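Need residues for this backbone.
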C-alpha cells in the first residue's frame, strides 16, 4: 500500500518535472531583485508592527487606565502585522519558495522511492 502511494505521487506532473529537471537550489545564488528586497523589508516591518507595537499599546493602556485600548487595538495591530507579513511573503517569498519546494519534493520522493524499493526486495 505504501509503495502504491509513493508511485502515485511520483507520477504527478509536478514531481516528474522536478525529478527530470534535477531541481536544485542554484536559484538562491542569483542576486535578489528589487521586488525581493522590498518584500524582505516589508517582512521586517511586519515584525516591528507585531509584538513590539502591541507591547507599547499595552503599556499605554495601563498608563491611561483604558484596558479596552489593548483589548481592541491588540488584535487589530496583530491582524495588520499578519497582513503586512503576507504581502512581504507574496513579494519576496514566492520565487524562492518555488525553488525550495521543487528541490525538497525531488529529494523526498527519491529517498522514499529508494527506501521502498530496497524494503520490497
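Answer:
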Amino acid at each position: 500500500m505504501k509503495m502504491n502511494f509513493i508511485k502515485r505521487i511520483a507520477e504527478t506532473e509536478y514531481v516528474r518535472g522536478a525529478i527530470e529537471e534535477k531541481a536544485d537550489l542554484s536559484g538562491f545564488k542569483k542576486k535578489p531583485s528589487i521586488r525581493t528586497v522590498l518584500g524582505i523589508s516589508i517582512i521586517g516591518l511586519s515584525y516591528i508592527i507585531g509584538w513590539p507595537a502591541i507591547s507599547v499599546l499595552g503599556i499605554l493602556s495601563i498608563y491611561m487606565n483604558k484596558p479596552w485600548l489593548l483589548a481592541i487595538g491588540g488584535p487589530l495591530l496583530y491582524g495588520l502585522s499578519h497582513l503586512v507579513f503576507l504581502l512581504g511573503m507574496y513579494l519576496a517569498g514566492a520565487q524562492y519558495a518555488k525553488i525550495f519546494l521543487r528541490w525538497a519534493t525531488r529529494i523526498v520522493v527519491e529517498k522514499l522511492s529508494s527506501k521502498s524499493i530496497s524494503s520490497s526486495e
